[in-house]
Design a protein that fits this description.
Radius of gyration: 17 Å
Strand content: 15-25%
Number of strands: 7
Structural class: alpha/beta
Number of helices: 9
Mean pLDDT: 81
Helix content: 25-40%
Shape: globular
Largest sheet: 7 strands, mixed
Low-confidence stretches: 1-34, 243-258
Order of helices and strands: HEEHHEEHHEHEHEHH
Length: 258
């Protein structure tokens, strides 16, 4: 039986759950000091590019830019007005390399924001190789498939500076096409932040090949130096609370949003 995210949220209220307190770094996972408890208007996964096209400086600008955007007072106010938000992250690169994952955290106030932002900016660089965007989005979808997660809207926030790598003989992995189709089936929104430092047509690629959902959108950063500003604008749109009319329009999780 297909349930809307809103019904899943109501069901989960009656089922308290315990989250993991820490995830092993040796497995490519980052610490998760607080699980996402309660119900949220939005559960958001950041899917961040750490492939070979992103050098060490650019990686730092991405992680620092995300943390900077989260710490802005306007974001704190948006989080407060929304009644909190569930946040997680996947730092992806090549399928052959382990992704770094930050598990679900409940973010309701400035202290929670600081905790998540500090975790993000302290993540060591792990990655390189090809741009296996589909694999990163697939892992983000795995996080959103957590049966204990209670959220009315589920969103993946993909950022990167390149298109998915097409190998002559592709290693085992998931294409962005397959990941996008899974997102459609789950009723998950995929938004994009395209960094145009190398590929001028990347915005069009994100619009045509990456984003998914009736409300999906793309934000552009002209360079990694502009990442924090672009992410700030993106977060304000993603965190804004859903109104009652929007809630009634939400489709079942198994129905395509395109």
């Amino acid at each position: 039986m297909n349930l809307s995210p809103y019904r899943i949220c109501l069901a989960a209220i009656t089922k308290p759950f315990l989250g993991s307190l820490m995830i092993c770094l040796l497995l490519g996972m980052a610490p998760s000091p607080a699980s996402a408890r309660g119900c949220f208007g939005t559960a958001l996964v950041f899917a961040i590019d750490a492939s070979g096209s992103v050098d060490d400086r650019e990686y730092v600008l991405q992680m620092g830019g995300l943390s900077q955007a989260l710490r802005d007072p306007k974001i704190e106010e948006a989080v407060r007005r929304a009644g909190g938000i569930a946040l997680a992250a996947v730092v992806w690169s090549d399928t052959a390399m382990a992704a770094t994952t930050v598990g679900w955290q409940s973010v309701r106030n400035a202290q929670d924001i600081e905790g998540f932002a500090s975790t993000i900016e302290s993540l060591p660089r792990v990655g390189g190789g090809g741009t296996d965007m589909g694999q990163g989005v697939w892992q983000a979808l795995d996080l959103l498939d957590d049966p204990t997660l209670c959220a009315m809207q589920r969103v993946i926030d993909v950022s990167g500076d390149g298109k998915e790598t097409l190998y002559p003989r592709r290693r085992h992995g998931v294409s962005i096409f397959s990941a996008q189709k899974r997102a459609e089936e789950y009723g998950v929104i995929i938004n994009g932040l395209a960094i145009l430092d190398e590929e001028e047509d990347l915005e069009e690629y994100y619009r045509g090949k990456v984003i998914s959902g009736a409300t999906a959108f793309v934000i552009v950063a002209n360079s990694f130096d502009d990442f924090a500003t672009a992410m700030h604008s993106k977060l304000l749109r993603e965190i804004t609370p859903l109104n009652q009319a929007q809630l009634h329009e939400m489709r079942p999780a198994g129905e395509s949003t395109n």
